[in-house]
Write a structure and sequence with these properties.
The structure is a single chain. By secondary structure, the chain is an alpha/beta fold. A hairpin with a 2-residue loop joins β8 and β9. The radius of gyration is 21 Å and the shape is globular. It starts with 6 loop residues before the first strand and ends in a 17-residue tail after the last helix. Helices cover 37% and strands 25% of the residues.
Amino acid sequence: MTRPARRLVIVGAGPAGLVAAIAARRAGFDCSIYEQAPGFEKVGGAVGIQSNGLHVLDALGLLESFRKCIAITLQAGVEAPPGRTVTRADFREVDIPHAGFAVALRYDLHEILAKSARSLGTQFHFDARCTRAEWQPGGVRLTFSSGTAVEAPLVFACDGINSIVRDQLGFKSKKRAIGEAYLRIVSPIAHPQPSRIGEYWHPDGRRAGAFALPGNRTYVFCSVPLGQWQTILKGGLDAWVRSWDDFGEPIATLIRSLPDWSSAVYDELADLRVDRWQRNGVFLLGDAAHAMTPNLGQGANCAMVDALVLVNLLAEAASSQSWREAGRRYEQLRRPFVTRIQNAALLGGRIAGWTNPLGRALRDQSLQLLNHAAPLRKASLKLSAGYNPAEQPFLHAPVAMV
């Protein structure tokens, strides 16, 4: 019979929830996932995989099989305006595990994580949107749209920026709309100029980026007027595509190469801060705890690190009483570092969109100076890679509890 104190319910089957399930099953937890989607259908868009995300996949034994889905990039630049490099990152400079950056299709990452979780006996419940969460003696009661209600001593809230679990259990959060929107899409051609992989900032505030994918494809993101994408699709797409010609190569070619813009994923950027990440056996992970802007490509990576670090801390705990201490350690380890990443991502997004000529000149000069100061450059690289020395002892394969 399963020991009740080792029962874990995970709400949400994104990267955080799936990594948590894999790690928890290997550690010996009885684990169930409740997901609001009707099944594991292909989800759109792409996701950045940084050094810390690669480290998690390696610890779970999944990295080798995932390599076919990614093309590791060791160098990337920022051009402002397009055609003039103002800064360049070279991950070969830093001595960290899995130094490098990649982009993966979100459904490829989802598929490999879900397959592993299933193989370990994780119980999946689909069409189960959490509608109510309430405290009970010794745990939490969760009610789902499917009509199911469960009680558990341990709950991982991996249900995103609008987390029902978080909000109904009294965690205080502050969500801030950034006022920017972006499209993410895959071009069917290889990057026309591989030496110029990276981001491109226009003086008028528009941004674009292009990163290699396997199979001679390129991941492209670009800014789009807030709230206007559907209108553009219906009546102004040709003019909008032509508007990117002033970026020149490679963006102009990549934008024109896309045959079906209806498949683009539209996102409005937001940032979320929460007063605490754990309370009485309930833990917030990923976007439920720290939704961030995508400017460092760290959202999914931080979510996966949350999951592995937390499970390893819990697996070390000898009883439900020591799980409280594990929760405090989780927040102490992760929160300050993730907050630094959130702040850096916010700042990066702001300065990228500056349109004032003097402001842009000062920004570019500062970036160039930073690029020539080796200690600052390496520190910046490590932050964008998600490397936190304090977490390294907990980024290992989970060990079964005794």
